[in-house]
Design a protein that fits this description.
Mean pLDDT: 95
Low-confidence stretches: none
Shape: globular
Strand content: 5-15%
Strand order of the largest sheet: 1-4-3-2-5-8-7-9-6
Helix content: 40-55%
Distance between the termini: 37 Å
Number of strands: 11
Number of domains: 3
Radius of gyration: 22 Å
């Protein structure tokens, strides 16, 4: 077994012991797909059928963490029982295992993902495959028949972390909301990519994967009720590269949900169609962050000192409040190589601080601006399509979204 995974599992043995797996465990899995399921019956059947339709299904271990909190209502608890009964009766081409997890009141999807991913790391390590992928998926997310082949292809060469493409369904009563939401997500990702940030991806729990060893080194999934994917990918990116694999597509459900304080379900529920739903960070905010990252890189490579005074003026107050000039000299002094200093800089100016920097620029220098105008600036290859999109023209918005999906 990988020493790194063994050390991680030794520290988190209570997770495996408290919530043991039932069902079938493959002796030689080439990947593990982890699905948290909270009151997802019968919808989860469609997700499992999608996986079963993949020709590579026999190479996969699928782990379903059927969960609810200890204060769950009777309907949720009943759904847990129905899900468990269904899983026990299934006969699939993949190895299917599951556990029932009654979670503490303070916990939620983060712990559910952690339970499944910890078990996945153990199974892959026991099979002697520490570089095999642990894949996050959701019980309401659909995948195509080439999904598993795409995941395996992405990890055919050693990878640390990977994020996949995503495409919400664009029909039904939530069409307007999902168009605005996905356009916003893609704009933010393109904006971050323009800065050169290593955190330039969309954090989505159903569209991420990492090597089993990378999972262990990064400290495993975070026990959070929401944002667990954001913080886990941040930890992953601090230890190694998180790369995009746009050839793999997941199709998350478009539905309103109040289970977590933010995310897809909450965003769709909050959509009103007002002008505020079509605002986004100003392109100039991304330009400022990009300038800061390029300056930092240049000074790190040249061996020069790096202080708040070297940052673009609109960002200085934020960096000063964050204590950069206090933290950085000590951090830099402990590094021996340019590569180490580069990594430590991005460990300090991480995904969370990048997001807070965008908030600072929004509040002090560059107010939120119309989404379609921002897309035209950040993604010039679709500027003509973006110029035609308006708040009430959903067909034009769909054309724009499909163009952004194709552009990657």
């Amino acid at each position: 077994m990988s020493i790194r995974i063994a050390k991680y599992l030794a520290r988190h043995r209570d997770t495996l012991d408290r919530w043991p797996l039932q069902g079938t465990m493959s002796k030689q899995p080439e990947l593990a797909v982890v699905i948290p399921a909270l009151a997802e019956y019968p919808g989860i059947c469609d997700t499992l059928e999608d996986l079963a339709a993949c020709p590579e299904a026999p190479r996969a271990q699928v782990i379903v963490v059927v969960n609810h909190r200890e204060d769950a209502d009777a309907g949720t608890i009943a759904n847990t029982g129905e899900t468990l009964t269904h899983l026990a009766a299934r006969r699939d081409p993949f190895a299917l295992s599951w556990c029932e997890a009654v979670l503490p009141r303070k916990d939620g999807v983060g712990l559910a993902r952690k339970i499944g991913m910890d078990h996945a790391a153990a199974l892959l390590a026991e099979a002697g495959r520490p570089q095999a992928p642990i894949v996050g998926l959701d019980a309401d997310t659909r995948v195509d028949a080439d999904y598993l082949s795409g995941v395996l292809a992405a990890f055919a060469v050693p990878r640390w972390g990977v994020v996949f493409n995503f495409a919400h369904p664009l029909d039904g009563p939530l069409r307007a909301a999902i168009l605005a939401y996905e356009l916003y997500l893609r704009y933010c990702e393109r904006g971050l990519r323009s800065t050169g940030s290593p955190y330039a991806y969309t954090a989505m729990g159903s569209a991420m994967a990492c090597a089993a060893e990378a999972y262990a080194v990064s400290g495993g999934m975070r026990r959070k009720q929401a944002g667990e994917d954001f913080y886990f990918l941040q930890a992953l990116a601090k230890c190694g590269p998180v790369e995009r694999a746009p050839g793999v597509v997941v199709r998350p459900a478009a539905r309103v949900s109040g289970r977590v304080p933010f995310g897809t379900g909450r965003s769709l529920g909050d959509f009103t169609g007002s002008g505020d739903d079509y605002l986004a960070y100003a392109p100039k905010s991304y330009a400022v962050i990009g300038a800061w990252l390029r300056t930092a890189e240049s000074r790190i490579v040249s061996g020069g000192n790096l202080t708040v005074a070297h940052a673009p003026e609109p960002l200085r107050a934020y960096l000063d409040a964050q204590g950069f000039d206090t933290d950085w000299p000590g951090i830099a002094a402990q590094t021996k190589t340019t590569g180490q200093r580069h990594a430590q800089f991005h460990a300090w100016f991480d995904a969370f601080r990048t997001l807070k920097a965008l908030h600072h620029l929004r509040d002090t220098a560059y107010p939120l601006q119309p989404l379609f105008e921002g897309i035209a600036r950040i993604a010039p290859e679709v500027d003509a399509i973006a110029a035609a999109a308006t708040r009430g023209d959903f067909d034009a918005q769909e054309r724009l979204l499909r163009a952004l999906r194709s552009a990657g």
